[in-house]
């Protein structure tokens, strides 16, 4: 049956080639939209690595001073915050979550260049941000004056560096003395927010006031408000005269950041949806013409005793076959993405989701567009058809 | 002659009404998709409206600090823009603004969230906002840290229920401002202009921002003319080595780019050329689909008429005259489809605007889009008509008379 249908399709190759081309491009477009949505949805569902609710980010500008002075000032600010009513805990960090900036570095590990993002944080940061330790510990007093420089890796980075082996306790040297030592591994930390892709992330222990110049303060739920913020900032200003502060709830930063990520996807999906509707109209038109042109052939089949249902099935099967050809070409193209090792753009699982989504949609489209023409085909009167001959 | 062709085409179209509907609607819809994409691109990229001067404006988005341990990339700091960029000779005006943030705003007992952008006075000279009430604040307001604000129409509606807002007070981000002007809403897709409320930078609770070369600011550099852009770029690059940086960093980098270059740099490919190539490939792929769709629709419509062509051929019509007939007919039909598509696009765009998927995106059909539509219709009409017409003209008369075949 299939072979016979293929022969019929081949007989009308000029017309069908265009339909195959159209299906092919549609498949690629639908795949692109689905891939974007799958990647974003996948990222969104992955753990964020920190808790953004009830956190106030305060950027601090200290009035000059030596590293030592700055350290002392910063510690006194943290002290003021911790004793302030409504504040649960406070810590210092270089780059707060959702901040547009990033601090990236490259390490040569075993001849491989590994890119990563880094950040500097104080001993209380893990508690303030609700980081989840997977293994080992966060920075603490035991790192004071130690013979190593402690780092905490996120799960992705630990996997990149050590695979399935245990990362905690490892030391490595990146042209620095003393060497780095991994003291802990945390859940994947995604500083750019829910939609951002995964990546390698490392925390260094910060010298307060020097490389950590922002304060993250965890507040009691419901404590935040304009007067609370004013009161808090005045207290900080009294603690270190000449210093200045800008405070902002992390939840607000989050909203703006998410909007920036999602807008291009919305536009792409919108245009994609209309493209597909357009293709649906086009295919219906083509199938229709196809059927009306083949009145004789279909009439002959009817005259020889083919049931209406069989004619309908033939037409639908034909369009499904034609669609398969286009889809095969489409898969051949999009499969290049993982084959060329571009897994950083889309992971295997997401790729499979996008491809199967596109497959289902295009087949559904093909069948829907074939339904009415196939019904028309089954209405062909044998007598009228044979009258041509 | 032309009239005859069209009469004939009309008669054939009326023969199968539903098919004609699908075919014509298909053409209209195809053009609608093209127009929709054009409107979005037009909305995104063309310098117009509030961003009318953006064809001679460069944007300083991010700065990079580099040492042997890595790279820190962040938005620009105020100190860098104010101390160094503002001193440049080539630009007509330099502005610095803080990226908009969603902030809480209390009005009576109710809490609302609005976007707040803090800008300097020069900002209003580079961006051409349309004021419905009052006017912008000035560089002097910025110096004196006056608590004045410009709000958009949506915010006025939210706070004052559509009454005049000039001189009234609003509370945003815990501070009280006097409304100095009301502007029309600006789309989220015009990032330099977009916000709900604009206030002077100096109203920030602290002056910390003044000392930072990295921060949360964007710079706008308006050149006197487009021809000055390369010169402005050179001057910008020349001032970078002199920028004072924290001692642990070896190098300070930044870039003054056009909007497109800025977007390209944020893509994974990083390079402007790669982005341009990607953009062209995407555009070609995108244009091919409607083109193939139109060819398919037209092919099926023209093949419908095989018997008629058979008659004409049998009576000695030449290939070229047949091709001419179908191409002309096709262009006319596509133009009709284009007009229908244009009307549909207008309806659709207003629906999209209304859904608020993209804040304040007011995509409209304007004269230029109308022009694009007509050009697209003619080009696609010609393009999609030639192949079917050529196929048809090669039909053998005998076969055609029998009702065509393959």
Write the layout of secondary structure elements.
The complex is a heterodimer of chains A (about 400) and B (about 400).
Chain A: H1 2-11, H2 13-45, E1 55-61, H3 67-83, E2 87-93, E3 102-109, E4 112-121, H4 125-129, E5 133-136, E6 149-154, H5 155-162, E7 171-172, E8 180-186, E9 201-205, E10 214-219, H6 226-239, E11 244-249, H7 250-293, H8 295-303, H9 308-334, H10 336-339, H11 348-378, H12 382-386
Chain B: H1 2-15, H2 17-45, E1 57-67, E2 70-75, H3 78-84, E3 93-107, E4 110-119, H4 123-126, E5 131-134, H5 139-144, E6 148-152, H6 153-160, E7 169-172, E8 175-183, E9 197-200, E10 217-222, H7 229-239, E11 251-257, H8 259-266, H9 272-303, H10 306-314, H11 319-355, H12 367-393, H13 397-401
Parallel strand pairs in B: 4-9, 6-8
Antiparallel strand pairs in B: 1-2, 1-10, 1-11, 3-4, 3-10, 5-8, 6-9, 7-8
Helix pairs in contact in B: 1-11, 2-9, 2-11, 2-12, 8-9, 9-12, 11-12
Provide a short characterization of the protein structure:
With 389 residues, chain A is of the alpha+beta class. Helices cover 53% and strands 17% of the residues of chain A.
């Amino acid at each position: 049956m299939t072979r016979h249908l293929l022969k019929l399709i081949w007989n009308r190759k000029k017309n069908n080639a265009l339909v195959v081309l159209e299906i092919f491009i549609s498949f690629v477009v639908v795949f692109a939209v689905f891939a974007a949505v799958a990647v974003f949805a996948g990222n969104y569902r992955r753990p964020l690595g920190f808790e953004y609710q009830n956190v106030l980010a305060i950027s601090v500008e200290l009035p000059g001073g030596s590293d030592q002075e700055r350290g002392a000032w910063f510690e006194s600010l943290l002290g003021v915050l911790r004793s302030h009513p409504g504040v649960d805990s406070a810590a210092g960090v270089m780059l707060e979550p959702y901040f547009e900036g990033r601090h990236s570095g490259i390490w040569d590990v075993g001849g491989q260049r590994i890119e990563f993002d880094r950040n500097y944080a104080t001993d209380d940061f893990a508690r303030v941000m609700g980081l989840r330790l997977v293994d080992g510990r966060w920075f603490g007093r035991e790192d004071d004056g130690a013979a190593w420089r402690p780092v905490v890796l996120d799960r992705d980075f630990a996997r990149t560096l050590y695979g399935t082996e245990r990362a905690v306790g490892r030391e490595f040297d990146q042209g620095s003395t003393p060497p780095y030592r991994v003291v802990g591994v945390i859940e994947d930390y995604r500083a750019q927010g829910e939609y951002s892709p995964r990546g390698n992330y490392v925390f260094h222990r910060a010298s307060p006031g020097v490389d950590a110049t922002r304060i993250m303060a965890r507040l009691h739920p419901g404590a935040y408000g304009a007067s609370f913020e004013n009161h808090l900032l005045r207290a900080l200003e009294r603690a270190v005269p000449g210093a200045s502060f800008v405070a902002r709830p992390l939840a607000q930063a989050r909203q703006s950041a998410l909007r920036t990520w999602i807008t291009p996807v919305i536009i792409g999906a919108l245009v994609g949806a209309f493209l597909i509707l357009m293709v649906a109209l086009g295919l219906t038109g083509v199938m229709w013409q196809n059927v009306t042109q083949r009145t004789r052939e279909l009439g002959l089949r009817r005259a020889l005793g083919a049931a209406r249902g069989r004619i309908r099935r033939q037409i639908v099967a034909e369009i499904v076959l034609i669609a398969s050809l286009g889809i095969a070409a489409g898969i051949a193209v999009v499969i290049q993405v993982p084959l060329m090792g571009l897994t950083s753009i889309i992971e295997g699982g997401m790729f499979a989701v996008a491809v199967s989504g596109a497959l289902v949609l295009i087949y559904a489209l093909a069948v829907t567009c074939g339904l009415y023409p196939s019904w028309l085909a089954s209405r062909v009167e044998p007598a009228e058809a044979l009258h041509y001959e | 002659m032309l009239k005859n062709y069209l009469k004939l085409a009309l008669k054939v179209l009326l023969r199968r009404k539903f098919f004609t509907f699908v075919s014509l609607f298909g053409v209209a819809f195809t053009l609608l998709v093209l127009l929709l994409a054009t409107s979005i691109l037009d909305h995104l990229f063309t310098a117009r409206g509030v961003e009318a001067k953006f064809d001679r404006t460069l944007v300083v988005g991010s700065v990079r600090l580099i040492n042997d341990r890595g790279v820190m990339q962040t938005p620009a700091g105020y100190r860098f823009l104010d101390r160094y960029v503002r001193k440049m000779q080539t630009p007509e005006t330099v502005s610095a603004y803080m990226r908009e943030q969603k902030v809480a705003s209390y009005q009576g007992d109710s809490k609302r969230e609005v976007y707040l952008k803090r800008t300097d006075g020069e900002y209003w000279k580079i961006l051409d906002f349309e004021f419905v009430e009052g006017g912008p604040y000035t560089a002097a307001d910025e110096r004196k840290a006056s608590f004045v604000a410009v709000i958009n129409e949506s915010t006025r509606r939210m706070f004052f229920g559509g009454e005049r807002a000039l001189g009234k007070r609003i509370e945003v981000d815990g501070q009280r401002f006097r409304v100095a002007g009301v502007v029309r809403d600006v789309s989220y897709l015009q990032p330099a202009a977009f916000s709900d409320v604009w206030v002077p930078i100096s109203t920030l609770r602290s002056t910390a921002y003044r000392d930072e070369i990295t921060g949360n600011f964007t710079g706008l550099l308006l050149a006197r003319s487009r021809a000055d852009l390369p010169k402005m770029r050179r001057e910008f690059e020349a001032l970078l080595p002199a920028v004072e940086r924290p001692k642990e960093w070896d190098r300070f980098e930044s870039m003054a780019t056009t909007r497109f270059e800025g977007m390209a740099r944020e893509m994974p490919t990083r390079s402007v050329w790669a982005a341009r190539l990607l953009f062209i490939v995407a555009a070609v792929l995108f244009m091919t689909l409607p083109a193939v769709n139109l060819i398919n629709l037209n092919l099926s419509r023209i093949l419908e008429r095989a018997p008629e062509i058979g008659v004409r051929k049998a009576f000695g019509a030449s290939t070229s005259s047949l091709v001419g007939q179908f191409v002309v007919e096709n262009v006319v039909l596509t133009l009709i489809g284009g007009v229908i598509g244009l009307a549909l696009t207008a309806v659709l765009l207003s629906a999209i605007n209304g859904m608020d998927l993209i804040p304040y995106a007011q995509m409209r059909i304007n004269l230029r889009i109308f022009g694009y539509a007509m050009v697209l219709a003619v080009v696609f009409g010609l393009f999609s008509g030639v192949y079917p017409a050529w196929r048809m003209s090669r039909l053998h008369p005998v076969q055609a008379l029998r009702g065509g075949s393959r």
